Amino acid sequence: MSSIPAKKSLVSPGRKPMISREDIIAAALKLLGPSRSVSTLSLREVAREAGIAPNSFYRHFRDMDELAVALIDMAGESLRQIIGDARQRATLEVSVVQSCTDAFMEQLRADDRLLHILLREGTVGSDAFKRAVERQLSFFEEELGQDLIRLAALKGSGLCQPALTAKAITRLVFTMGATVLDLPRDKQDELAAQIVKMVRMIIAGTQTLAAIGAKKTD
Amino acid sequence: MSSIPAKKSLVSPGRKPMISREDIIAAALKLLGPSRSVSTLSLREVAREAGIAPNSFYRHFRDMDELAVALIDMAGESLRQIIGDARQRATLEVSVVQSCTDAFMEQLRADDRLLHILLREGTVGSDAFKRAVERQLSFFEEELGQDLIRLAALKGSGLCQPALTAKAITRLVFTMGATVLDLPRDKQDELAAQIVKMVRMIIAGTQTLAAIGAKKTD
DNA sequence: TGTACATCAGTGAACGCGCGTTCACTGATGTAC
DNA sequence: TGTACATCAGTGAACGCGCGTTCACTGATGTAC
């Protein structure tokens, strides 16, 4: 788990064994929670949690922004992995969308700290910060768009502007997800159910609009 | 405009004339912008902008949280007013939804600082902070839900779960609106158009699902 | 195998800064007699 | 109308704090000869 090599653990007292970027990232993650967002973390706080002197932080990251972007990228990759797995598990009975939404909700309930980052930090922080979140979100939209196209081809249902539909679904799910985090456990399920319904609504909408569009061009 | 009574302006030098809550709110608004959110403002900063000593702030607000909540409430009321006006202007030709969306977009483009607050601060800040934003959003959902019901009755179109539909539209428009703020002028129109289409998609979806539901209960 | 040396991740101390908050104050305003 | 007094929004100075960042350092590790 820890990346501290055991063979090097004999160091002079008062001196920490070598610490890696990953250890600092782990420390930052430990500090995050429902009431702490990445943008409120201080360098000293993270260093303290990691068990290093504040200035040692600079050996691994230029500044907190760089750490934050690293966290955001990790969070995006992690969630894409999870959603990707869910996509694979989708069958003809269980739609891709349903499967992915379920996976997302499950992760949400698991209180995954990486997920918190993606959900919360989209609108605050430095420009680099916002851009990193936007980038991850656009990856999701891209992949979801492909799913929708495949899905429509498979079912023979229409599809109006897959990219736009994917964007609407992604953004809506992420905002709603963010509000779930603040809710007490017992209300989370309720909101999760709402999110699923909202996604269905959007998909029904894109199909209907596609049908109308097709009729008009007849 | 200013609430400083002119008749009382003769005060001893080095002493500010009486200042009101509104003056402090105005100072806070002045400091906000695309890269400054309410939650990053400091008490001293606001006091400086208002031209008072830091400790004078306490004569008007318990702390920054109280100011923030006041700002959020103002922002919500202001936008509801604007949307309410748009609702009145809606005709049979221009739908309520179109009219309201247009009004929202116009306000967005006008770079209204109160609107910034509502769009940005939903996911960060103290609990009181988040609760205040949630409350304002729920007001919108409520009113929009009523609109949707009236609209459906008027047009005879179906409507599946008006409250849920209103929530989806509100949340989606607000998140998308938040991303608009960071965009350069020339890309804002594009995104604004996307938002309108997304709303149409949701409305089409709720109508379709209502139709399906009605068919099933036949 | 031993020695000299470069590298580099760690260190403690210190810096100046802006912050929220407190204190005892002051003096203009409004009220009671 | 004048005087005494309470009120209260303003004040400057000071506090202790955590912050980001810098500095010159140290000593373990790996490499060259």
TrEMBL record, chains A, B:
Transmembrane segments: none annotated. GO terms for molecular function: DNA binding. Residues 42-61 bind DNA. This is HTH-type transcriptional repressor FabR. It holds the Pfam family TetR_N. The keyword DNA-binding applies. Keywords: DNA-binding. The gene is fabR. InterPro entries: Homeodomain-like_sf, HTH_TetR, HTH_transcr_repressor_FabR. Residues 18-79 form the HTH tetR-type domain.
